[in-house]
Amino acid sequence: MSQIERAEEAHGQSTAVARPTAGVPDRFENPGLPAHRHRMGDTDPRAAKRAERQVAVLLLLSILGSIGIIVSIVAIQYDGSFARVSWSTKAIGLSMFFSLFALGAGAVHWAKTLMPDDERIDHRHRQRGTEAERAKAVAILKEGAGEAALGRRPLIRNTLIGALALFPLPAVFFFRDTGPLPGDDLSTTMWEQGTYLVKDPEGGRIRAADVSIGSVVHVMPEGIEDVEHPLNEKAKSAVLIMRLEEEELTEKSADWGVSGIVAYSKICTHMGCPVALYEQQTHHLLCPCHQSTFDLTQDCKVIFGPAKRPLPQLPIVVDDEGYLVAEDGFQEAVGPSFWERG
User: How far apart are CA 315 and CA 257, in angstroms?
Assistant: First the structure.
């Protein structure tokens, strides 16, 4: 008695099983594979040649895309402007799209039109076959390699080699474009003794008398637009100035400020996001990226979030005309902590 019959009998069900009568096929019988439908390339040599040329054209487009990536990196040099960065990014992106898309489309078109597409049954066998079976497997692999027709289709073979050889080459230029090593550039800014604070982005020096209690002003060092790479300097030199009652500040913050006006780096010490949210009532600065919170009344100490260091303070004074000016540069590195900064 079979397992099914025993289970049915245990549940009080009939154990009668319908058996196919002689001459009537079992409805569960394996019908086998459907008849193979030949493609045009299988029967018409001209169609196969046409498909071969189409694959070659797609692979050539991939080669041109890879060359375009290199040209985009080399030809469009970064000059610090947003427009140049935008054009460079678009050119690299479009070239990379054509390189990847054409390579993939060529491989798919090759498989769909020229490689064998007949279905085969591969029966299960032991992990290690007999010597005869192993020899047969080797013969099948050789047959598959022959069916790929790389030897008989040198046009596809050569363009495929060219596309695959050129595709990783732009990575060399990407890596080259990340240099040179930054040295101490990440730890220094434009702020130095005598640098005026100007409003960002409209510009213009800032009078201490114009900064009211509870206000916050985004500032940059004067002359930042004239440096070689203003975007890089802006990313490091952004500063916020706020005005509090002097008795609300620590002695150190008050000494480095002017009549309750204090200046702190705008760059979060966690991941470098701009700390642009100021709560007037609590005197807290908030980073919108990961919610690190800094307390102005405690020298911008971290009171919440993943940041580990306070925001660096910029010492400021007032000149003879009442304008805010840096007394010195930052006394510590601005921006996020990293492996060699701690």
Answer: 6
